[in-house]
Design a protein that fits this description.
This protein is mostly helical and about 575 residues long. Helices cover about 75% and strands about 0% of the residues. About 25% of the residues are buried.
Length: about 575
């Protein structure tokens, strides 16, 4: 045999030098389920990264990391360490061709130079299989956790999302025009109908059969080494474009470009009108846009497409409750209760469906139906009281059956049972309810006090008005009386003046008579004509003088009267 090349030794080194690496690799290759166990991958990476981390750090990562996290997410890697991981996972991919985790993990530590290529391969593989959770799986790179490494080498955040979106946009344009992925070659074979029909695995689940290799090598051998006539590559099925547009919608939604995301999901619904996922995503986008009524209608349309899907029925129930359509939500929730159960609400309460009771209670609280809302929140609290009571029976069962791990988990669960999300939601809803009841009571009391104050103010204004009217009447009466007194005084003064004027006229007349009497006597006594003429002339002069005097006195009196 020929001696192995240096490159082959370098590729085999990570899996053959360290016994810990070999042990973890053997454990990963034990069975298909173990290949998808991320706890084993964390141990495998800790063994590979022993020279760049301390033992305490590796132990901390093994104890604290959960779900799909790996040490490569929390450790800064240099180029040599990254190449070591690439070689290790390339060897695992050859040994485990069906493992999805082995193909997915290199995307977590891929630098910017290779991230686009690795993401492109991942997107092509999972889009063909119809994986609606692909966008959610990529969000771990869009929103890294606080203890993950975020440097300029690995694309993260909005930059990572836009990088994935650019890859998806190229594939969408190529699928629309040619029915093929962007830069599709002969080796990028289209899977058969059996591989794509009805397959919707999550990104972290064990994948099915990998895409079949290209038969080009077999055809060349049959033709004596010469290439067969070139034929156009087979086009992708229509569902490939659908899932690619669905991934594009998810990226646009994460970026906040909701209008463009709605246009894209409408195109998805036009491609496959019976796809429940399209209507569900559209409802989610409408909810994020603030149109809860349209979102509930869209989710209800999705529910009607598959009446046997409990998940989509629960989502429709939740959306209907959040927009206030309680009766429709109750009818939808009753579809999955037991047929023999006469009361669907009682059946859901017996099944301890806390999410439903919390949503119904919140809907009643928004409608200010405080009594029914409090009843729902109290039902959730009683569920947790039942959990606490049931633990006494579980103690004897665990000791009798020796299920010690489950027993320890139950004990830990009971220690933090009041911190459960369902109990906290019920407690928070009840607190909001009592605060609203208190505020409503204070508002009613304030309204009552305000009404009493308004009534008192009106009474005071009325009394003040009556007092002002009485004062005005008294003032008018006094003014009238003073006017009457003034008129009486004026009339009396007038009468006095008239009386004085008459008295003066009488005195003047008496004076005239007294003055004229001697003249008349003298005139009568004069017997002679001359004497008579003289006395006649004198009498006439006296009479005229008296008349002139009387006229002057009368003019003065008239002038005074006018003044």
């Amino acid at each position: 045999d020929d001696p192995p090349d240096d490159d082959d030794d370098e590729k085999a080194a990570p899996l053959s030098v360290d016994p810990a690496v070999l042990a973890w690799a053997e454990l990963l290759c034990w069975s298909p389920p173990t290949a998808e166990n991320y706890a084993y991958h964390r141990g495998f990476q800790c063994a590979l990264l022993a020279d760049v981390t301390t033992a305490e750090r590796r132990r901390e990562l093994l104890e604290t990391q959960t779900a799909c996290e790996t040490p490569a997410d929390a450790i800064a890697l240099d180029e040599a360490t990254r190449r070591r991981l690439d070689r290790a996972y390339a060897a695992l991919a050859e040994a485990l061709p069906r493992s999805e985790a082995v193909r997915w993990i290199p995307l977590a530590y891929a630098p910017r130079e290779t991230f686009e290529d690795v993401a492109d391969q991942t997107i092509r593989r999972l889009v063909r299989k119809g994986a609606p959770a692909l966008g959610s799986a990529l969000e771990r790179f869009f929103e890294p956790r606080s203890h993950h490494v975020v440097d300029g080498q690995r694309p993260r955040g909005a930059d990572c999302c836009r990088l994935v979106l650019s890859v998806v946009d190229r594939h969408v344009a190529s699928l629309r025009s040619k029915g093929l992925f962007f830069n599709a070659d002969d080796d990028d074979a289209v899977p058969s109908e059996e591989e794509t029909r009805g397959v919707n695995p999550p990104p972290f689940a064990a994948a099915g059969s990998p895409p079949s290799p290209s038969p080009r090598g077999e055809e060349e051998e049959e033709n004596g080494g010469s290439s067969p006539p070139t034929t156009p590559p087979p086009t992708e099925p229509p569902l490939t474009l659908f899932w690619t547009l669905y991934l594009r919608t998810h990226c646009l939604e994460w970026l906040g470009e909701l209008e463009e995301a709605l246009e894209t999901i409408d195109e998805c619904a036009a491609l496959v009108p019976t796809a429940v996922e399209a209507y569900e995503k559209r409802a989610r986008l409408l909810k994020r846009s603030g149109d809860l009524e349209a979102a509930a209608s869209a989710m209800d349309d999705a529910r009607r497409l598959d009446l046997a899907d409990r998940y989509i029925n629960n989502k429709a129930t939740k959306y209907l409750l959040r927009c206030g359509r309680v009766e429709e939500a109750r009818r939808a929730a009753a579809l999955f209760t037991r047929p023999e159960a006469r009361d669907a609400e009682a059946h859901l309460r017996d099944m301890q469906a806390t999410w439903y009771e919390l949503e119904v209670g919140a809907a009643f609280l928004r409608r200010r139906d405080l009594g029914p809302a409090l009843k729902k929140f109290d039902a959730v609290a009683r569920h947790f009281a039942d959990f606490v009571d049931d633990q006494f029976d579980f103690h004897t069962y665990c000791i009798r059956k020796m299920t010690l791990r489950a027993y320890v988990e139950v004990l830990r669960f009971e220690d933090r049972i009041r911190g459960h999300a369902g109990f906290r939601g019920a407690a928070a809803g009840a607190c909001r309810l009592w605060l609203r009841a208190y505020d409503d009571g204070r508002a009613k009391e304030h309204k009552k006090r305000q009404e009493e104050a308004d009534l008192k103010r009106r009474y005071d204004e009325l009394a003040k008005t009556k007092g002002a009217a009485a004062a005005d009447a008294d003032q008018a009466e006094a003014a009238k009386k003073s006017a009457e007194d003034a008129a009486a005084a004026k009339a009396k003064a007038k009468r006095e003046k008239l009386k004085q004027r008459k008295a003066r006229a009488k005195e003047a007349k008496a004076a005239n008579d007294d003055a004229a009497a001697p003249l008349a006597a003298a005139a009568a006594a004069a017997s002679s004509s001359g004497t008579r003429f003289f006395f006649f002339s004198l009498s006439l002069f006296a009479i005229l003088s008296l008349k002139d005097l009387a006229m002057r006195v009368g003019g003065r009196l008239r002038g005074r009267r006018r003044r």
